[in-house]
Amino acid sequence: MLRHARRALLVLAITCGCATRALCQSSNPADLPLRPGDRLLVKVWVDTVFADSARIDEHGTVVLPRLGALTLTRLSAGDIADSVRLAYTRLIRTTAIEVTPLRRVTVLGEVKQPATYYMETASTLRDAVAMAGGITDIGAIGHAVILRDSGRINVRHWERSQGADLIVHSGDVVWIDREPWLKRNIFSVISGLGIVFSLIYTIRR
C-alpha cells in the first residue's frame, strides 16, 4: 500500500509540480511541449541496461515502467527530461538515467527513404532530410515545404541556413519537391534543339 501511495505522489509531483512555472510556449522551439504521437525514450543503467520507448497517446499521457501513467503535454521538453529522471532516481538507486523526448516528424516527397521519424527536440529541417536518406537525384535542392498545423511554410536555401526557425516541430510534415522538368532535362532539350536546327540547315542548303 505504501509503495502505491509513494508512486502516486511521484506521478503527482511530475504532472503538477511544475504548475508554478510559466507554461506558455517558449521562444526556443526545442523547448516546446511534446504532443500526441511523440515518444519518450528512457534508458536506465542498473545491473543491465533497461531501455524503453513509450508513445504519448491522444490525451497527452505516456505510460512508463514503474512510474505508471504521466501527463506530459503541459511541460516543456527540457522539464520532461528533468522531471522523469528525478522520479526514477527516487525509485531506483542509480543516477545513470537518460530521458530523451522525441518529436514525430514525417518526411515525404523526393527523399530516398520517405517515412515518419522520431527526432530529438533540437533537430532541424536538415536533420530530418538527412535521416530520410537525403534528397533524390531529381529532388529540388534549396526548396522545402513544411506542413504545420494546417499551414504551409516555404523554406528557401534550407541546406545552407541555420537558426531556431529551422527546428522541426511535433507533427511536422516535410515535403521535398521535384526539380522542374525543364531544369532536369535542360541539356537534353538543348541537344535536341541543336539536332533540329542542324537538320533544318541541311535541308535548306
Report on the structure:
This protein is of the alpha+beta class and 205 residues long. It has two domains: 2-101, no CATH class; 103-183, Outer membrane lipoprotein wza fold like, CATH 3.10.560. Helix content is 29%, strand content 28%. The chain has five helices and nine strands. It has helices spanning 2-16, 77-91, 125-131, 181-184, 186-204, and strands spanning 39-45, 49-55, 61-64, 68-71, 97-109, 115-120, 143-148, 151-156, 173-176. The strands form two sheets. Strands 1, 2, 5, 6, 7, 8 and 9 form a seven-stranded mixed β-sheet that branches. A two-stranded antiparallel ribbon has the order 3-4. A hairpin with a 2-residue loop joins strand 7 (143-148) and strand 8 (151-156). Helix 1 (2-16) runs antiparallel to helix 2. The longest helix has 19 residues, at 186-204. The model is unreliable at 14-25 (pLDDT under 50).
User: Oligomer, anyone?
Assistant: single chain
User: Based on CA inertia axes, which overall geometry fits?
Assistant: elongated
**Mean pLDDT metric:** 79
| Uncertain residue ranges | 14-25
List keywords for this structure.
two-stranded antiparallel ribbon; alpha+beta; 5 helices; 205 residues; seven-stranded mixed sheet; single chain
